[in-house]
Amino acid sequence: MSGSRPHLGAAAWLAAGPVRDILGILDCDGEEARVVGGAVRNALLGEPVHEIDIATTALPEEILRRAERAQLRAVPTGIDHGTVTLLADGVPLEVTTLREDVETYGRKAKVAFGRDWRRDAERRDFTINALSVSRDGVVHDYVGGLADLDQRRVRFIGDAAARIAEDYLRILRFFRFHAAYGVGQPDAAALHACIAARAGLTSLSRERVRMEVLKLLVARRAADVVRVMSDAGLMSMIHGGVSYLVAFEKMVAIEAELGERPDAVRRLGALAVVIEEDAERLFERLRLSNAEHGRLQSMADAWWRIAPSFSAQQARAFLYRVGGSGFADRVLLAWSHSSAPAEDARWRALAAFPTQWTPPSCPVSASDLMARGVPKGPSLGAALREAEAAWIAADFPTDQGAIAAIIARVAAEHRA
Questions:
Q1: How far apart, in Å, are the Cα atoms of 107 and each of 82, 101, 102, 166, 216?
Q2: Are residues 190 and 158 in contact, defined by beta-carbon separation less than 8 angstroms?
Q3: String of b and e for 78-105 (b: at least 16 CB within 10 Å)?
Q4: Which one, of 301, 258, 45, 37, lies nearest residue 157 by Cα?
Q5: Domain 1-151 belongs to what topology?
Q6: In terms of DSSP bridges, do strands 91-97 and 53-56 run parallel, antiparallel, or are they unpaired?
Q7: What residues are paired with 104 via a beta bridge?
Q8: Do residues 169 and 126 make contact, with C-beta atoms less than 8 angstroms apart?
Q9: What is the rounded CA–CA span in Å between residue 62 and residue 74?
Q10: CB-based contacts of 261: which residues, under 8 Å, 6+ apart?
Q11: For the whole prediction, is pTM greater than 0.70?
């Protein structure tokens, strides 16, 4: 990026498809439109471009009029703040009128629509997020974002403390963006402002904190940044307990060694869960989904009993009981807390066990037991559980004679 003005004219997402069509109807007849924010940042870094946001000088009413003329569906998703969602070829793209803050108080701000691209850029959070690109591919930078992008530096626009006071979630966003895009140590002024304003984290909704934390935990440099946050006293404020930094860093290394995609919930477990009460606390503090909560509960269930010295029979019994996902979660948690390195062959073999054996269905049914005199009711349920336990203890026999013997023995004990 250094040495010449960046140009994205050849970018397929900009020069063709729905982005081109929407820019075509908005960037004309006295109005201007550009792609702004993360799409520009990622394109310049060679990262995948996901969400594409468009800014325009046109007022919301004019956006709606032009969309109607072009026979595009328009949804006024945030029209009070100047945002309209346009659907082109079935792809939804947010279009927002340029804005400038008149007054800010926390996350809320009194805004006025404007036509000044510089002032619109100056109201954003980080310099690397304030870049824009016009439909001819020319990149516009009003706040030093290109230089920061070149240096892989995440820096607040203007005064860091003032930016944070506008929305305390920006503390977490700073660390997330540094973990995703930064190199080296965090920007000193930004880090100092985040630490000074950390009490503001308590004013945020749990849902917003959860969203940022889970994104942070899977970022490229999550291990380094989580350690910085812990040293600054921020992680304990977020999850309310002890941060197991070595286990977290080991989990990151294990996933990389196994070729696993970064898993936010599994990494959260390594960072903050050793007993079931930890899972309950995280559920409350971060308002986790029921599925996320369930995984953390499962991970906390006697993970310390798992060892690479498991026999094949022990591994089969464990896999049958908790399933493939639960097996992976708990094995990797135990591994992350062990003294073994991420390259350990025995732990790796245990983690790979679900690829070698598929748990069968229990061959004993209620009708099998009822046919031998076990009555319906609590006794039948108890007999079923006992028969399944006996089948597991026998290492999942498939021989009909062995299965019949289990059924006969259990039925004799529970027959009316």
A1: 17, 12, 13, 6, 20
A2: no
A3: ebeebbbbbebeeeebbbbbbbbeeebe
A4: 37
A5: Beta Polymerase; domain 2 (3.30.460)
A6: parallel
A7: 109
A8: no
A9: 12
A10: 255
A11: yes
Q: Which two tokens stand for residue 26?
A: 């908005």
Neighbours of 385 (CB within 10 A): 11
Give Cα 177 distance to the centre of its chain: 13
pLDDT per position in the chain (416 positions), as tens? 444 467 787 678 888 889 999 999 999 999 999 999 999 999 999 999 988 999 999 999 999 999 999 999 999 988 888 999 999 888 899 999 998 866 655 545 566 899 999 999 999 999 999 999 999 999 999 999 999 999 999 999 999 999 999 999 999 999 999 999 999 999 999 999 999 999 999 999 999 999 999 999 999 999 999 999 999 999 999 999 999 999 999 999 999 999 999 999 999 999 999 999 999 999 999 999 999 999 999 999 999 999 999 999 999 999 999 999 999 999 999 999 999 999 999 999 999 999 999 999 999 999 999 999 999 999 999 999 999 999 999 999 999 999 999 999 999 999 86
The dihedral over CA atoms of 321, 323, 327, 329, expressed in degrees to the nearest 10, equals -120
Pairwise CA distance, residues 109 & 60, whole Å: 18
Distance CA 32, CA 26 (A): 6
The radius of gyration of the chain from alpha carbons, rounded to an integer in Å, stands at 28
Q: Residue 174 in contact with residue 156, Cβ under 8 Å? A: yes
Give the Cα separation of 96 and 59 in Å (integer). Answer: 9
Task: Write the single-letter amino acid at 235.
Answer: M
Q: What residues does each domain of the chain span?
A: 1-151, 153-222, 240-359, 366-414
d(C-alpha 222, C-alpha 371), whole Å = 58
